[in-house]
Write a structure and sequence with these properties.
With 207 residues, the chain is mainly β. The protein is built from one helix and 13 strands, in the order H-E-E-E-E-E-E-E-E-E-E-E-E-E.
Length: 207
Amino acid sequence: MKNFKTILVLAISVAFFSCSKDDEPTQTSTPTALTVQTFSNLYAPVIGGGGQPVSGDFVKFSFATGQVIATGDNWDIAFRSTTILVNGGVATTGQPERTGIGAASIVSSIFSNVTTAPVDNLFNQDTATLNAIPTGSGNGWYNYNSSNNVISPIAGKVIVVKTHDGKYAKMEILNYYQNAPANPTGTEPSRYYKFNFVYQPNGSKNF
């Protein structure tokens, strides 16, 4: 009888602690903090220009990997000279095919102040006649000084990108010359992009 009571008490104790453990709230992992990353000297050459037809491959970039993409369709933006494409919309002659759902929106703000991606109807994809990120001095991300041929990123222009698979990233272009000189003179090697970016991997619009 004494042994039976001991076994009964042990059984009740085990059941009690098991129930107590099951009733505890499930612990969730802390979201990974988003960090500002910098990519330097992304070289985006072009053939032709200066009134001549332009050609050459676009240099593709993935925000998820933070690297240039040599092959495959998992790119988000692509560079050639001052032209930047998104992986969404329509490709014209000489451009890579768009296989994703990418789009872009240009926000006039300080980079750190852009904490949320714009509403969907402010995003654009590339079309046969107009890129989501416009080219031309004062139209998109840069100004052109014809007196010294210097391309200067426009301060306060943040490019928010919907990636090829529907995630979000924000970027600011800092420089267009090799090794990012503080005051380019136009004599430095050009088409070397330096930019900051933040990538949101979970599909949220918040940065």
